[in-house]
């Protein structure tokens, strides 16, 4: 740290992203990326950009083409959609814009919420999950503060039904209920359908997981047009060109190809359920994950040992040094071949441990 860093940032603990090691090729099951390439139309459109025109010029700061395409696919009006550089950025803008009376989120959830709260000097309270890792909606209903949670939650994968979300949002119209739906496409119903009747509900989404575009950095929010204008105000006050021209093109093409999107997510769901069955047969406890990952623990094996041994053998999974879940592993669903290799490797490791 230099002597120049402002006092208010000296104690900041940044978010620690999942490893992206460059030393060798791993089977990457640690950051919930898609194992499938982006839609064919995305690759084609990018290849057609070889003249460099899109890089020479500034991108459209209103992202109007993508906005139109996305709004229509989500079944909402254009003015209900905000687009930004990854949903992390959308969430940061939310913490910047809407949380001056404090914010609450689950104690076990996406680690970035706490980082944003600290960065934006927002008071926060962590609400413990129930023992089965589910969110207790009643804990949120009592609180007169901005509410943020991921649905399905990460890293648990558990889904909170829409009726509960509606109860939370309607219990406190003076504050936003922000639902981070990074994993909604893997088998759950989006809360976007509730935004029409709940003007304080904001739904955040991303192209990083179900649309195979983590590297493009495109995220969005859907909600009441006035809230969207607030987010635009923040965006145009710090980085109007926050989505690169190539990313806008990629995301637009990805939205257009509904068939490919459905094919990929259905395959992830299918493989997830297969891996879950296989792990259960081996004595692992898996939550009822509705995401593109499983959250698992074994009564006899130490999570850190499994994580390290898997890494030694070329398979990366995610483990969190957090009380209550330090023995758990979060395993991204890859291709069926990836997961076969994962299971085979896991079996080798546990055979060795038993010997
Ligand atoms: C992956 C993830 C994000 C971040 O997505 P980006 O759009 O890539 O920034 C946000 N929230 C949750 C819960 C996530 O898992």
CA-based gyration radius: 21 Å
Bound compounds: pyridoxal-5'-phosphate
Tally of separate helices: 12
Residues in β-strands, percent = 5-15%
Give the fraction of residues assigned to helices. 25-40%
For the biggest β-sheet, the strand order reads 2-8-7-6-5-3-4
The largest pleated sheet is described as: 7 strands, mixed
Helix-strand topology string: EHHHEHEHEHEHEEEHHHEEHEEH
Total count of strands = 12
Ends apart, CA distance between termini = 47 Å
**What general form does the structure show?**
globular
**Uncertain runs:** none
Global mean pLDDT? 96
Decide which structural class fits the backbone.
alpha/beta
Explain how this protein is built:
With 355 residues, the protein is of the alpha/beta class. The chain has 12 helices and 12 strands. The protein has helices at residues 40-47, 53-56, 64-74, 87-98, 112-119, 137-141, 162-170, 225-238, 245-256, 258-281, 303-312, 336-354; strands spanning 27-29, 81-84, 103-106, 124-127, 146-150, 177-180, 201-206, 219-222, 285-286, 293-297, 315-317, 329-332. It has a 7-stranded mixed beta sheet, sandwiched between helices. Strands 9-10-12 form a 3-stranded antiparallel beta sheet. Helix 1 (40-47) runs antiparallel to helix 9 (245-256) and helix 4 (87-98) crosses helix 5. The relative contact order is 0.16.
């Amino acid at each position: 740290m230099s002597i120049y860093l402002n006092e208010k940032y000296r104690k900041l603990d940044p978010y620690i992203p999942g490893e992206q090691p460059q030393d060798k090729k791993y089977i990457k099951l640690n950051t919930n990326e898609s194992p499938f390439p982006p839609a064919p139309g995305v690759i084609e459109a990018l290849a057609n950009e070889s003249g460099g025109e899109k890089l020479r010029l500034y991108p459209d700061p209103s992202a109007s083409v993508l906005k139109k395409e996305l709004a229509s696919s989500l079944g909402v009006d254009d003015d209900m959609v905000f687009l930004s550089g990854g949903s992390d950025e959308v969430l940061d803008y939310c913490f910047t814009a809407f949380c001056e009376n404090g914010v609450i989120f689950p104690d076990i959830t996406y680690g970035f919420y706490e980082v944003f709260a600290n960065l934006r000097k927002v008071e926060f309270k962590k609400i413990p999950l129930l023992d089965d890792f589910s969110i207790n909606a009643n804990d949120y209903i009592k609180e007169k503060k901005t509410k943020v949670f991921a649905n399905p939650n990460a890293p648990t994968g558990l889904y909170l039904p829409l009726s509960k979300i509606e109860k939370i949002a309607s219990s406190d119209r003076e504050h936003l209920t922000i639902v981070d739906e990074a994993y909604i496409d893997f088998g759950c119903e989006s809360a976007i359908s509730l935004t029409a009747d709940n003007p304080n509900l904001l739904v955040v989404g991303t192209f990083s997981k179900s649309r195979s575009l983590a590297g493009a950095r495109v995220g969005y929010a859907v909600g009441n047009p006035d809230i969207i204008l607030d987010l635009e105000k923040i965006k145009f006050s710090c980085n109007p060109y926050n989505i690169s021209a190539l990313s806008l093109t990629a995301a637009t093409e990805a939205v257009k190809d509904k068939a490919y999107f459905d094919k990929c997510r259905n395959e992830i769901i299918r493989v997830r359920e297969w891996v879950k069955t296989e792990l259960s047969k081996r004595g692992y406890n898996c939550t009822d994950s509705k995401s593109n990952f499983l959250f698992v623990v074994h009564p006899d094996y130490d999570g850190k040992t499994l994580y390290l041994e898997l890494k030694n053998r070329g398979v990366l999974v995610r483990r969190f040094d957090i009380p209550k879940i330090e023995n758990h592993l979060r395993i991204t669903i890859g291709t069926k071949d990836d997961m076969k290799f994962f299971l085979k490797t896991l079996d080798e490791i546990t055979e060795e441990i038993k010997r």
